[in-house]
Design a protein that fits this description.
Low-confidence stretches: none
Radius of gyration: 19 Å
Shape: elongated
Strand content: under 5%
Structural class: mainly alpha
Number of helices: 3
Number of strands: 0
Number of domains: 1
CATH architecture: Orthogonal Bundle
Largest sheet: none
Order of helices and strands: HHH
Length: about 120
């Protein structure tokens, strides 16, 4: 790949990861708002349907976020030899993978906490 293609691919992957992360935050916020506002008033079937949709959506968003950043890591490794002038080529090798896995773990914990909130806190208010 040329220098332009590598730089363009990296910026595209990073912007896709940001998009997936923002979609995840929006989905989690909407789920928490629904459980807070209508948690006690929802029929059981509808509550379980909303929970299933939330679990599937967050699974898709977390896995997509991780896969996009894994591809960005591969591009970063390629850039170390091909594009020496780019700042990404001089970052520590551990920075992007560590950041990715930290954010993925935070997303998973936040999802589990949201589901716990829906089951326990919103049903007792």
């Amino acid at each position: 790949m040329s220098e332009f293609e590598l730089t363009d691919a990296l910026s595209t992957q990073i912007s896709l990861a940001i998009t997936f992360f923002m979609a995840y935050l929006s989905t989690t916020s909407a789920y928490l708002a629904v459980t807070y506002v209508a948690g006690n008033d929802l029929p059981r079937f509808l509550a379980r349907t909303i929970l299933a949709i939330y679990v599937l959506a967050t699974y898709f968003l977390v896995v997509s976020f991780q896969r996009v950043l894994t591809f960005a890591i591969a591009i970063q490794i390629e850039m170390r030899t091909a594009v020496d002038w780019h700042p990404v080529a001089h970052e520590p090798r551990w920075l992007l993978p560590t950041s990715m896995w930290t954010i993925v773990m935070v997303m998973i914990v936040l999802s589990m906490a949201s589901i716990w909130y829906a089951f326990h806190v919103s049903r007792t208010k």
